[in-house]
Amino acid sequence: MNYSIAFRTIVIKEIFRFIRIWPQTLLPPAITTALYFLIFGKLIGDRIGTISGASYMDYIVPGIILMSVISHSYANVVSSFYSTKFQRNIEELLVAPIPNWVILGGYVSGGIIRGLLVGVVVALISLLFADIKVNNIAITLSIAVLTATVFALAGFINAILAESFDDISIIPNFVLTPLSYLGGVFYSVDMLPGVWQSISMGNPILYMINAFRYGLIGVTDIDIQLSFIITGGFIVTLTLFSLYLLHKGIGIKN
Amino acid sequence: MNALSLRNLRKTYNNGFVALKGIDLDVEAGDFFALLGPNGAGKSTAIGIISSLINSTSGSVSIFGHDLRHEREKAKSCIGLVPQEVNFNQFDTVKSILLNQAGYYGTPRKLALQRTEYCLKQMDLWDKRDTVSRRLSGGMKRRVMIARALVHAPKLLILDEPTAGVDIEIRRSMWQMMQEINQQGTTIILTTHYLEEAESLCRNIAIINHGRIVENSDMASLLARLHVEHFVLDLARPIAVAPVIEGCQIERVTDKTLNVAVPKEHGLNKLFSQLTAQNIEVISLKNKTNRLEQLFMDLIDSNPTGDKR
After folding, report:
1. Across chain B, what does the average pLDDT equal?
2. B116 touches chain A (CB under 8 A)
3. Which of A124, A225, B3, B97 could pair covalently with B187 via S-S, beta carbons 3.0-4.6 A apart?
4. B138 touches chain A (CB under 8 A)
5. pLDDT tens digit sequence for B65-84
6. pTM across the whole model
7. Domain harbouring B42, CATH code
């Protein structure tokens, strides 16, 4: 059987879904991040000075872009797959001759595409406030794609395990948002006192944001290789766990 | 060749409920097969396992010779499922529901468009192709689910109570559709609570109760086992007491209505002669219950624990 057609069908369905509801999916990040740039970058940032040689505005741009990529790649998969479960059209996929890896790949790709699209929108908004010269395009793009993959996978797992709409908002509100804010979006980890610096090192988002910041403006607190290893490790672990859940039918089959 | 073979199929849910206690079943290719049983008997569990929505505890499922465990994709590609409840995305248009379904089965786009048009026309839904599905009536939604199940041209169509909750007119038109689909070569397995539906459409039948198959035969043989038929007679003139006729049980419902249980060997001609002799004129007659319904109730009542017969 030609699995590429099934894969393409899921991906296109996902793209149409978030484009159809663009006022909920693409517009809010543009407005929110424009406010971030205006308030934190421009009004407050002008009084802060530089961090690691970069202006405060330039310093926060990569973190805000990647934070949007993280939250939207996660949100796309968790809301779409949970709705599919809730409305029971997951049965269309379970009855069809589609291997689990194609289902996973299709939904995760949809999440990656939305995450990256939102990232592009936020990056374009940032150009109104900052003059960013990309330091390393390969690192910038690869870490953005890998980060979107990690959080699309995490969203998929959340959707599989969720039993109510409350369950799909707990992780984004109480885990993802705090980790993103504490992941060095607005500050350098070197600015933290010793204990908090050590605790921050346990936050995977810190590694991703620093690698992305290095790619964009050449500034990082973390070893770039370590960032890629950690991000890759998360992808492998979350992929295997997702496939295990699908294979066992946990959360999707009786 | 068998369209479906179940061997020693068992299912125990996590809460300990044993839904299937080792069922064996064969459905021949081209058949129109009824799978009946009371609520909670195990029908939906069996269909859930066959269509990969439920994991079995043990046993095997083979679809057109493909083992569901070992040749999963080949087995699944033979099946089209029409579930009990609407389960398509109600925000999608009718056309996109079918196109997506065709895509899931690996149908190339050009062919998917042709099949979608064919199936929607067959279900009289072509005019509604661009309508968002939540705006459709209940009967149309049922037909969308049948069209969706047919879009990849399955060899085995499973209809799980397809006419539940639809009005008589739509039910009749759906029966006609199902017969046409079967005549075109598609094997159909039907579960229904309307036993009249099963009797008029299906050639073979299995009855499941308490997780076991308690009856599995062809419809004609099963109906031939019916020894007593129940009729309602409307009389031309009122009567004060029920007539007494040897061999028949007669109950007076109103002064112009009788319920009569007639053994097959007695025959209706003899009954009418005896009534005429008592100056009772019958103006119309109808079956009190559907014949299959009567047998079904007899089987279920006589087998409350689902033990094999």
Report:
1. 89
2. no
3. B3
4. no
5. 999 999 999 999 999 999 98
6. 0.85
7. 3.40.50.300
